[in-house]
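Review box. Two proteins, two foldings.
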Amino acid sequence: MKLKFTDSKTGGDLLLFKTEDSFDRQYFGRDRFNKYFTIAWNPGQAQTVTIDGTDHAFPAQSLLTLLFNQSFSFEKPQDIIAWQFNREFYCIIDHDSEVSCVGFLFGSTEHLFISLDESAQQKLQLLMDMFAEEFKTTDTIQNEVLLVLLKRLIIYVTQLAKAGYAPVKKMQEEKYHTYRKFHLLVEKHFKTEHSVSFYAQQLCKSPKTLSNLFSGNGHKSPSQVIQERILIEAKRLLSYTDRPVKQVTYELGFEDLAYFSNFFKKHTGQSPVDFRNNRPVIKEGK
């Protein structure tokens, strides 16, 4: 089952998938023009999800959120229930005060697998049934009803994630929002800004204050977050495009090819060339 609503005025899309045999996404292929955020629910047995070429265990009765620029595939896509939406349908950044998910649920370098107890499973099933019903109800308020349901879903998933993610549970609300803003800034600037001091300045804090916020809460340091985001993009470009390593170097804000190669090898154990040669390459546009 694939249900889709499109707003003819804005180009906004909302989709619901269930029991679909081929549900995946290759961002650097034909899918790169469809910038969909994804909320995936695995109500069945544990399976593997491959995100940007790396395999992860997707536990039974858990949720996973994925950004619009991530490539992914599921071992058993027919067992996955998933919602997808684009910025034109609902912009989570412009409406951050409503859902408070940017930089945490969406926009973090960490993949959150959100466990669902029986009560959460029942609520998600109810929401899914309501979505399915509204997709079939074509009237003048269909857009508004589906939008309200999507906001309810995002807010509920954010609450579940905050309740189950130990580092965030220990944070005061003010620190939580700083944490989110930092991740959002990294997502926006990581290709040109690699220093912690830049992000600290944007947040009106000293680098030490920002680092102290992350320390002691089980988080990666700000420097680790920045480096991991650069590495994620480097691996994507090397795996899914045929762009020369020199072009990848400059695209990620490095002025020197040797410096980028040393940075990449330090964190992966392989040079960019060896990494590319050891992985299948999906050409752009395929």
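Next protein.
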Amino acid sequence: MTASGLLFSVSLTVGLAVGAGVVVGLAAGALVAGAVWTRCRRRHDALEASEARQRRLLDHAADIVLVHALDGADLWLNRAGQAALGVAGTPALSLVDTVAVEDRATVRAHLAALAETGRARSDVRVGGPSGERVLLDLASQVVEVESERRVVSVGRDVGAERAEQAALAEARDQAQEGARVRSQFLASMSHEIRTPLTSVVGFAEILRDEVAEPQRGLVDAIAAGGERLLATLDSVLDLATLDARRETLRPEALDVVAEVEAALDRARPAADARGIALDVSSVGPELRARLDADALGRVLAHVVGNAVRFTEAGGVTVEVDADAHAVSLRVIDTGIGIPEAALPTLFDGFESPGQGFGLAISQQLVHLMGGTIAVESRWRAGTAVTVVLPRGEAGPVEAEVAEAVA
């Protein structure tokens, strides 16, 4: 073979080899591309099937469910959403388009919060099927599905709930305003009455020394009536101050047993005049607590004073108990008791004229100190008033109390 023939033969062989390689490469590329396309297609079909299953599930949700993009586009509504908005199928709308025009700024801020934090919640109004506005509590959450960020929003009709809340708030404001006006009126009237009444009591004391013995009983009756009215006015002023929330507590470390004994000493003249005994029973000679001394003294004065006033025979006992967190004061009398019908309004001084204002004032003071007050009573069988107050930062219970509890 000549040199030229050999060269031609080699060139032909190389060309055929290159051509075969190209064909093989193209075939291999086609096979790889086909496999990739098949996998992508299967993945896409699986994703669509998964989304279809999820949407079928969401269609049965009672709440309104909206699925959309971060900017509110590509909106999908479940059946409850379609019914609420009065649309059929999946409309070509964005989330912004579904809300009332006056709330579109709100929904844009809602979407901005979603983009920033991944969640948002707002009250928005949408147009109902009959054109009426439906108020939705719209709670949205960004989720990632197959590397794609979507938003799931759940809406709940809260129109009736918000209307009820507004009505309750208005009623509360009206009640507070009524209480303020009543307290202001009571305080003004009490001050107006106090001035002439003080004069009556003062002049009655002077007159007692000027009249003959047979008339002194009448003067004493005038003075006693005047003093009772002054005490009632003081109670009304206390109640007005508490109603207006102008009472300020000044807690301090004190001995509760000593405070109880002091209260009994103040009530002893009235008790001696009626021939009844006063006693204190405590689990320890000293019980420390952090309380407002003035408020505690007023509560004891009212409760012990009532017990003395409504007891004809026997006595009044104050039982003092405590644990590490609270102190209990139980005032027990052997008096006439309270009719069962009067118990529900016992702490409303305006509806319990027989009891005066003492228990109403005591309840507010006890609540102000963070405690509770309760009354147990049987008609003509005595009464027990229990006051429980927090001990504050007074320290642990004394050894005597611990031993008594153990």
